[in-house]
Structures are given as structure tokens and as C-alpha cells.
Amino acid sequence: MKNQLSRRSLLGRISAVAAGVLAAPVAKAAKTVTQKLLVASDAPKGYDPTQHEWVMAIDANRCIGCGLCAEACKKENHVPEGPYFRTWVERYIIRKPQPGSGAARGETLVDSPDGGIHGYPEAPVPKEEIQHSFFVPKLCNLCKHSPCTQVCPVGATFDAPDGAVLIDPTYCIGCGFCIQACPYGCRFLSPVTKTAEKCTLCYHRITRGLKPACVEVCPTQARIFGDLKNPKPDDPIQQFYQNNLVEALKPHLGTEPRVFYAGIDKEVR
Amino acid sequence: MTNEITNIVQVLAPHFEGYVYPNEATQQPLWGILIVLYPYITGLVAGAFIMASLVRVFNVKALEPVYRLSMLTAFAFLLCAPLPLLFHLGHPERCYEVMMTPHLTSPMAIFGFVYAWYLMAVLLLELWFDYRRDFVAWSESTPGFKGILYRLFTVGVTDVSQPAVQLDHKTGQILSIVGIPSAFLLHGYVGFIFGSIKANPWWGNVLMPIIFIMSAMVSGIALCVFNYMVLTWIRRKTVDMKCLDVMGMFLFYALVVDTAIEGLDWIHRIYSAEEGFRVIQYMAREKLFYTLSLGQVTFGTLVPLILLGLLQLVRRRVPELQRRRMYFASACLILTGVLAMRWNVVIGGQLFSKSLRGVMGYKMEFAGLEGWFMGAALLCLPFIILTVFVKLFLAEHEQR
After folding, report:
1. Residue B7 contacts A where some CB pair is shorter than 8 Å
2. Do A180 and B199 touch (CB under 8 A)?
3. Which residues of B touch A84 (CB under 8 A)?
4. Smallest CA–CA separation between A127 and chain B, in Å?
5. Residue B48 falls within a domain, yes or no?
6. B108 domain-assigned
7. CATH number of the domain within which A149 lies
8. A183 interaction partners in chain B (CB closer than 8 Å)
9. Chain A within 8 Å of B164 (Cβ-Cβ)?
10. Are residues A9 and A19 in the same domain?
11. What residues make up the domain containing A265?
């Protein structure tokens, strides 16, 4: 009889431990959410993320492919050397169709040597064979339904109430799941911190009333940045929407990017 | 080769073709051999457990000789399942956060709980209820350290009266019934980790969890055949042919279902031919020719399918020795084929750009965390653990 009881009590103890193990994460998750709202990364004290809605717009018609934006970003955010970019510029060259091919256009050539930081070499196609050529700056698409946030196993990456998608580097376990989940190739695993990194819209700048570094240095104002909740008179963002038909990248994935493009072709992915 | 992939403008590095996003132009894919092994090992666990459940739940008496070996196999492999995951993390020291502050929409976070549930609530408990009576007997009959170990394993519950043993048996059976959906959940979730990635046309697929479950069952049963035959050979005993034939039968039917579902997946991909199809087609034809067409399809599926199918049809006319050889060859081929399948999913899914305009090459190194050596070591580890388990728990049992 004694042994029967000891088995029962053993099972009881196991259940108690299991219940404890299951309850602890719930409590800790609640704590983390609160923490995140209070200490949203690099923002100064007094910054209220609920009072802003940051968006970025790209006017590809204006981009000249100088790559200053990508360079400024690397410097401003101490992005590691090598194939690691928070923003980059792609060059698209659409060839004229081969005579007699019956096609409306030829093949599309895309490149982004070193993210476009040092500009671009001469086009690999003779000028007279080019139908269209344009540059497309790329960055985090600030998805409303961000797949990267959805898959993070610890919640280290999160959607700030102001539209920025941020990563808590002290919390990221470096599993790389978010990098796989980002359809736009905007994330990388930093070889320095061993955590995921991405464009933060220069959160340390925008929360202090400055523009992101890439927007600041763009000589042609191809990158337009603004706050939908606090429109200024002749707000560039409002004007952008007024003057252009806009599109987002990979809309079929349902991510609803907050970065909109004007002047891009169907070939841009 | 399609237009989209040949459009090389500037050669980035020798192992890139076409255009890849700058962040994708790394020397190695983000997830390497470790993440190939993780679903492989987890699948073997789930499959071996299902195999054991055939005895426990479905009362397939012929399989009794392999019941305990299957359970121990599942346990040994389950202990190693999280290791590759842990090693590949950028910050392994923060791994506990997956359990402490899980992000509930993440398949990877939920996997932590499914794993813990499976290890603690299903396998460990079932094994304990299974072995308790033996532990009590062995702790009394075995001297020295081993005896102390067995006594520890009894956790002080030494009642071996008829009702107590019956209760053990009943609890074990209930756990086994709970275990079947748990095993499906365990490996289905692994499939979902890949299937949920809509950004990747190679992965994002509703059939992925089912494909993973089926291939897990196939590989798990094949592993039990392999282990059983190797163990009897080492112990110089004769193989129970009835048991082997039944295992072969289940292996064959599981393989038929697995092949059908994977075939369905490909038919769907080819027929719907969505945006990413051209790059997928190129991958299958060029980049993954050896591991997909040869490793997975021809030698991992078709050859064992023919071998096992033949044995189903003309079993009685094949002499025992030939039969044993055919079963063993099928098991080895399937085990390699499923490993190739995990490679094709994990590595294949990272060898093309998400811009769908280019592909990357990958040559695995020998040394290093993601190298051949580490992979082989991690694959050997569960076998080493299993050897210890067999020495501790199976030899004694058979002597009894």
C-alpha cells in the first residue's frame, strides 16, 4: 500500500513540476511585452511610439544609383564589412527584344555590386540594346504583417507601435529563422554580434526628430520619409502619394509593406 | 536553363549565378548540416516510436522482439535531437529563452514545448512504466554500480505485486496511445517550421508537415530494421524472420504512402507552376541532381520500393538469407534517402535567391561547426547512447 501511495505522490510531483514549467513562460512573456513597450531600443526618454506612424517611400524615377544611401547606412549603423546590408541599391537593365523574336522585351539583367555602395560599372549591354534601365533602392519593407516577427521564437524582433520593425539584440538567440522568413532579403546574421540585424529606419535618429541616414544623404530625394500621424504642410510623403501611382514589393505574400515604390517595373522583386 | 537565371551581369563570386540579394551572397547557407540533421534525427525518433506503438497499441504480436529496441532507439535519438539546433544558434547561452519567453506564433518556440512534452511526458514515463518491474528485479540481482543505478531508476517504487504491474501496463498503454499523436505532432511541427515560410517557394507548402511525418515513419521503421539486424549480428543470434517480415511489410506500406504524398507534392508544384517554379525546376535538374534525383528518388525510394514490393509478392520463394539481405539493403537505402531528402529541403531551400533570379553554390567543409566531421559526430552520438542503453537495459532483459 505504501508503495502505491509513493507512486501516486511521484506522479503528483511530476505534474506539479510540469505545471510550474508551463506557467513560468506565460508570466515571463507578459513581463517581456511590458518591458519592450517601455524600453523600445534606442529611443530617447519621453518618445511616445504611439504618436507616430513612420513610412518610407521610394521614387525610383529619381534614383541615380550613386549608392550614397547604402554607404551612409553602413557607416551610421556600423554595419559589418562584407555581404551585410541594411539597405542597398539594385540596377535593372531590360534589354530590347531580339529582332524577330516576337517578344515585347528582352531579358532582364539585375546587379548590385557590393550593394551599390561604390556605384555601378558600365552597363554590360551596349546602350542601343537597352530598352529600360533604372535603379531600385531596397530596405526593410516595414511590413504590417511582418513574417519575421511572426516566426521569432523568443519575440526578440517586434513591431513597434510606430511602424518600425525592431530587434532587441540582447534577446536575439541568433537562430536565423527571421532571416529565412523575410521575403525581401533584408535581414542578415551579424558576424560580430551573432544576432539578426536589419534596417531600423535609423531609430536612434528618427526618435530624435532627424531623418534616417539614407534619406538625409540622398542627393535626388528618391527616398522620402515621413510620419503619417503628424503631416507637415507640403508633406513630401503626402505629395508622393498625391503625384504617383504606388506599388509594394511581393504584394501576393500579404505582408502589406509600409514602404511604397513609384516608377518600378514588374521585374522588380 | 531559364532566362531568369542566366542573366548574369557581374560575376559576384564563383559560386553564384544570376542575381542574389546582397545579404544572401554569403559563403555558406545560413542553415547548414546541423539543421539538416535536426529534422532527420527528430524524424527517426517519431518513426521508431510509431514502430513501438504497433506492438503496444495495435497489438502486432510479431513485432514484440523489437519493441524495447524501438523504444530505446527513440529515446537515444530524442536526447540528441535538440543538439544540432542548439549548436547552430548564434547565442546558445540564451536558448532557455525559447522555453521561458516563447513567442507563441513561432513554430520554433512551440517545438520546444512539443519536444519537452514528448521527452518528459511520453517517452520517459512510458519507458519507466515499461521497465519498472525489471528495474526492481535487476536492482536485487545485480551487484555493484549497475545495481545502484537500477535501484535509482526505480525511484523507490518497488511494489511488484500483480495489481501494481497491471497498473504499470495499463498506464504504459495509455501513454502509448497519447504518444502516437504526440509523435505526429513532434515531427509535424518540424515540417511546419519549413512549411510556414511563405517567403520560400521551396518550403512554404501545406503538405510539408505531412511529408515530414510520413518520411519520419519510413526512416524510423528503417532504423529499427537496421538496429535489429545489426544487434542480432553483433550478438550472433538468429533474426526472428517473422518479425523482420512484418517490419518489412510496414516499411513497404509506409514507403508507398510517403512516395504517394511526395509525388502529389511534385505534381502540384509542376501543375500550378507558380512564380517560383522555374527556379525550383532548375534546382531539381541541376543543383540537387545527385541528392534529389539519385539519392532521394532513385536509391532512397524507387529501389527500396521495388525490393520491398517484390518481397511482399514472392516472399515465400526467396530464401531467408536473400530476404535478410534485401531488408537490410532497403533499410540502409531508405535511411540514406531520407537524409538526402532532409538535405534537399534544408540546403536546397537556401541555394536559390528569394529574388528568384539566381542560385548559390555550396561546398561543405570538413572541419568547423557546419562541416562533415561535426555532422558525422552528431549522427554517431545517438548510436553511442543507444549502445549504452542496450548494454544497460536490453542485454539484461534478454537474459532474464
Report:
1. yes
2. yes
3. 23
4. 14
5. yes
6. yes
7. 3.30.70.20
8. 198-199, 354
9. yes
10. yes
11. 40-89+138-269
Q: How many structural domains is chain A composed of? A: 2
Domain span at residue B180 reads 33-196+366-400
Residue A113 domain-assigned (yes or no): no
Residue A103 domain flag: no
For the segment B152-203, what is each residue's pLDDT rounded down to a tens digit?
999 988 899 999 999 999 999 999 999 999 989 988 989 999 999 999 999 9
Domain membership of residue B275 (yes or no) is no
Q: What's the per-residue H, E or C state across chain A?
A: CHHHHHHHHHHHHHHHHHHHHHHHHHHHHHHHHHHHHHCCCCCCCCCCHHHCCEEEEEECCCCCCCCHHHHHHHHHCCCCCCCCCCEEEEEEEEECCCCCCCCCCCCEEEECHHHHCCCCCCCCCCHHHEEEEEEEEEECCCCCCCHHHHHCCCCCEEECCCCCEEECCCCCCCCCHHHHHCCCCCCEECCCCCCEECCCCCHHHHCCCCCCHHHHHCCCCCEEEEECCCCCCCCHHHHHHHHCCCECCCHHHCCCCCEEEECCCCCCC
Under an 8 A CB cutoff, do A3 and B353 touch? no
A177 chain-B contacts, CB cut-off 8 A: 106, 108, 193
Residue range B64-92: mean pLDDT, rounded: 95
Enter the ipTM.
0.90
Q: How many domains is chain B built from?
A: 1
